[in-house]
């Protein structure tokens, strides 16, 4: 999971907890008003359903990115369940919009981890080497067992 996706999901979790807080406020306000001025019972039932659904969305998203997102692919069903619940609950909520953006724009990287930056620097340095130096590095990688015979021959063919 890249950092951008993780940040968007964390922001969605925060907004899901805001939804939980608002639903709790709504329920308390319903019971504090005088019976003659209360809204219909359906309103409070919907508020309870919304409360539990928002709580479920937040919990599912937390579980989806648990352990720094290393298990995200395994727990992708939790993310999708949270997305579907959020869409059913309120299509235009901030949580839903963030989850949809996360789902469709997950390949855009706005925040790059340090290991990706180091890899890009190594690739740039490798491109700057002469052909002889590249072949020597390929032989070292092949001798160390980092690449197979087929991969070695393929890379060698590309260089020559």
How would you portray this structure in words?
- The protein has 7 helices and no strands.
- The radius of gyration is 25 Å and the shape is rod-shaped.
- Helix content is 74%, strand content 0%.
Order of helices and strands: HHHHHHH
Low-confidence stretches: none
Rg measurement, Å: 25 Å
- Content of β-strand: under 5%
> What is the rounded distance between the termini?
36 Å
pLDDT averaged residue by residue: 79
Shape: rod-shaped
The biggest beta sheet, please? none
Q: Helix proportion of residues, in percent?
A: over 70%
Number of helical regions:
7
Q: Helix/strand-derived class?
A: mainly alpha
Q: How many beta-strand elements? A: 0
Summary tags:
mainly alpha, 7 helices, rod-shaped
Task: Produce the secondary structure layout.
Blueprint: H1 3-32, H2 41-64, H3 76-89, H4 94-104, H5 114-128, H6 131-143, H7 149-159
Helix pairs in contact: 1-2, 1-4, 2-3, 6-7
Summarize the structure.
The protein has 160 residues and is mainly alpha-helical.
